[in-house]
Every structure is written in structure tokens, then in C-alpha cells.
Amino acid sequence: MEINTNSLQFLFGSTIRALFKQSGKEFENQGLNLSPEQHYLLRILTSQEESIQSDLAEIMQKDKSAIMRHVDQLEKSGYVVRVNDAVDRRKKHIVITEAGTELLQKCETVIANLMVKNLQGISDDELTTFKKVLSKMKENAEK
């Protein structure tokens, strides 16, 4: 079976993989010990007051065990801590540490620079249209 490299599915998938590979390589080049998935996880943790593993799994659209592996690595590196819930002792909130926040800021600078590079030759109007189309496609897929 021949792969249609012009199909939307192929283009989306290969673009996402290329962007993740690019950011992972640049994190490594900058001496930042973080994978693109872990970067995304830290970014989520800074945008939410309280995060538990199941919430993170839902947001990242990954299974809980994959999230647990990332959290374990981040905790081992000192970038997150698990905090007991005040009401339900079985619940552990994942909280970003100061070291995690500092690392995230460095990663955000790397990502911003990569976005400037990756958006070269794309007008603001094209980008706005692209975002609208992606939003509509996502909305249709979730129906």
C-alpha cells in the first residue's frame, strides 16, 4: 500500500513529529535535560492551580502510565513535586518547583526562537486562516 504524502493526516502527523524532533534536538543542544512531552507537561502545570495525573493524561491525550513516567522523571530531576490533597489522601497534586519554572522559561525561549524560524514566509493572514481551519477540524472530529 502506497502512502499518500499529500494527505492531511500524513502532513499533520509528519509536521508534529518534525516539530517535536526539532524542539527536542534544540533542548539537547542548549543543555536542557527535557523532552518535548515533559516541556508540554510543565507548561500545563504552570497554567493550572491544581493538577492530578488523570487531568494531565486527559489534557495531553496520553494514558496515565505514560504521564506517570514523565512525572517520575521530572520529580527525580527536581522539576515537580507531588503534594497530598488536603481532603482526599489518595490524591496527589503535581506541582512545578522553582527549578522546574526556571527550566520552563529557558525552554520557552528556545520554542519562541524556533517558532520565528518555522514561521518564516508565512503571513499573519495565512497563520490566522490556518488556526481557524485547525480549530474547525478539531471541533468536527470531536462531534
UniProtKB/TrEMBL annotation:
Protein name (database record): DNA-binding MarR family transcriptional regulator
Keyword flag Transcription regulation: yes
GO biological process entries: response to stress
InterPro entries: HTH_MarR-typ, MarR/SlyA-like, Tscrpt_reg_MarR-type_CS, WH-like_DNA-bd_sf, WH_DNA-bd_sf
SMART domains recorded: HTH_MARR (SM00347)
Gene Ontology terms, MF aspect: DNA binding; DNA-binding transcription factor activity
Record keywords, A-Z: DNA-binding, Transcription, Transcription regulation
Residue ranges of domain HTH marR-type in the record: 5-139
